[in-house]
Amino acid sequence: MPACCSWNDVFQYETNKVTRIQSMNYGTIKWICHLIVFSYVIFALVSDKRYQRKEPLISSVHTKVKGIAEVREEIIESGAKKVVQSVFDTADYTFPLQGNSFFVMTNFLKTEGQEQGLCPEVRRGPRVVGQVTRVPGGGTGQRKIMSRGYFHTYVMFWFPKTCH
After folding, report:
1. Radius of gyration in angstroms for the set of CA atoms belonging to the chain, rounded to a whole number
2. Are 129 and 149 in contact (CB under 8 A)?
3. What is the β-pairing status of strands 80-88 and 139-145?
4. What is the pTM for the complete model shown?
5. In degrees, to the nearest 5, what angle opens at C-alpha 146 toward C-alphas 142 and 148?
6. What is the tens place of the pLDDT at every residue in 94-112?
7. Final residue in a domain of this structure, among 73, 92, 110
8. What is the Cα–Cα distance from 99 to 78, expressed in whole angstroms?
9. Are residues 143 and 164 in the same domain?
10. Three-class DSSP category at 153
């Protein structure tokens, strides 16, 4: 349409010239092409069920814990009540992931008379330096060498307060 501003140009229209060719060869090629396209559409959508194709879900959950927890407890020491405050930070009340699990600590129960720390491993007496030892689950690998080449291996667990 020309870029003119007359009313005659507004009401003009153009058509394409259509030519009909009567040929058995061109008609056969046309319908074979149509058949190939339709066959692929039917195969892709119906037999291969691509209309139902689902993508696998890939996701991850990341949690972040902030803040501190303050625990106040009353203990009796030398016949007098004493308020003791314990402060737990994020490292104290969160736990490492294990597989596809998620753990949130919602309650804390303290066993009276115990505390977490280093304590000599309980065995039948001290061992000689150079002896091959296996350190258990909470083992630190730290050793306290005693007299005459004997040592104790220290472990990190909950122990009675009298251990230290």
Report:
1. 41
2. yes
3. unpaired
4. 0.29
5. 130
6. 777 777 776 667 777 777 7
7. 110
8. 48
9. yes
10. strand
